[in-house]
Amino acid sequence: MDRLGTYIAASILVIFSQAVVAQKSSPQSDLDALGIKLEGALKEISALEESDKKLKESDARQLETKAMLDRAERKIRAEEVPEIQRRANAADAQRQQAINSGCPEGGGSLPIAEANRCNALVQAHAAVVRQIEADAEALKRQLTTIEQGQAAVSATTLANFQKRKENGVRRNELEAMKTQLRVDMIKRSLAIQSNRVKAPKVCRTINSDEKAHCCASILTDGTDPGRCDAPLVFQVFEQAGFFRTAAVKPR
Prior knowledge:
The protein is mainly α and 251 residues long. It has one domain (27-40, 62-239). The protein has helices spanning 3-24, 27-100, 112-189, 193-203, 209-220, 230-239. Helix 2 runs antiparallel to helix 3, helix 3 (112-189) crosses helix 6 (230-239) and helix 4 (193-203) runs antiparallel to helix 5.
């Protein structure tokens, strides 16, 4: 076979192969493929709904945690910090009383009895001050922990907001996809002769003359299902068994 004959034979083979591939497609196989895509979109929408539910629960926990932390902070600042200050003032007064009683500020030489008296006062004062300082440091640590908790709540709340926003964008995409897939399935289902025969009767089951007429016009006038109540038409077609695919189940 010469080159021209080989080329023609190869071309015929390619055309024949394409024809075979084209013949494998049928209205029902197309419906099956569309149904699988629709099922995937519906599953993702359900996952988004579950995600939003968890985000809502998380937000509620953040509000509860924030309220608890805020109450603890208010109590510390309104009650415990002033109490520390009151005790510090009392310690200062105790020190001044010791000085006024003759105990030298900064220490000094005194008769043994007077020195013993002053040393006892100094030691008592020092013990009070150490306890006040320890309690003040504990309050500081509590406030630091509270501030860290408040920061964590704010970060989680912001992250939840961003995630909810992303979910909303994706949901809108999926809802548009779902609508288009249903429209495509309605159209493709009417390529099946048995469905075309049943369609007028099925459309008449719709409890709205206007919507029933629009449903029928999809077959008679080639009206785009998107111009009708596509979810309703899809539902009645689904219930009538027009799709006949395991990928589409009543919802």
